[in-house]
Automatic annotation (TrEMBL):
InterPro entries with a match to the protein in the record: Cyt_c_oxidase_su4_prok
Taxonomic placement: Bacteria, Pseudomonadati, Bacteroidota, Flavobacteriia, Flavobacteriales
UniProt protein name: Cytochrome C oxidase subunit IV
Membrane topology: Multi-pass membrane protein
Species in which this protein is naturally found: Maribacter algarum
Keyword field contains Repeat: no
Chief localization: membrane
Pfam families, per database record: COX4_pro
Keywords on record: Cell membrane, Membrane, Transmembrane, Transmembrane helix
Transmembrane parts of this sequence: 23-43, 58-79, 91-109
């Protein structure tokens, strides 16, 4: 039994008349987020590259967050997660977000440790 797809995005803030218009709206949103990432990657503002948060530059955190936003929105809209039950949505969305954040945490602390060993330890930079 087929059912109609919702022709709205951002929890009803933007409504469209057809699926084609909705696809273009979603494409526009994803393009804007990608354009922000590209502009920040090219410009690399000093305020974002000189500021550290939890051992990593603020610019890198912004890239990670924007990438997770795009991944979440693609899953939400194109995989029709908004039409599923709450428990399934949370299981599908929050599990990878938790795992990505955990991986980032592990990589940051391990990389910082290795850097400090080479910088302050008995081993010198020999490569």
């Amino acid at each position: 039994m087929a059912h109609e797809h919702k022709l709205e995005i951002f929890r009803g803030l933007w409504k469209f008349k057809s699926n084609t218009q909705k696809i273009w709206g979603v494409l526009a949103f994803l393009c804007v987020v990608t354009a922000i990432e590209v502009v920040l990657g090219i410009m690399k503002p000093e305020i974002l590259t000189d500021t550290y948060f939890l051992g990593m530059k603020l610019l890198n955190w912004i890239f990670i967050i924007l990438t997770l936003v795009k991944a979440y929105y693609i899953a939400w809209d194109f995989m029709h997660l908004r039409d599923e039950k709450t428990a399934l949505r949370r299981a599908i969305v929050w599990t990878p977000i938790f795992l990505v954040l955990y991986l980032v945490f592990i990589l940051l602390f391990e990389a910082d440790y290795v850097y400090n060993v080479y910088k302050d330890g008995f081993v010198t930079w020999n490569f």
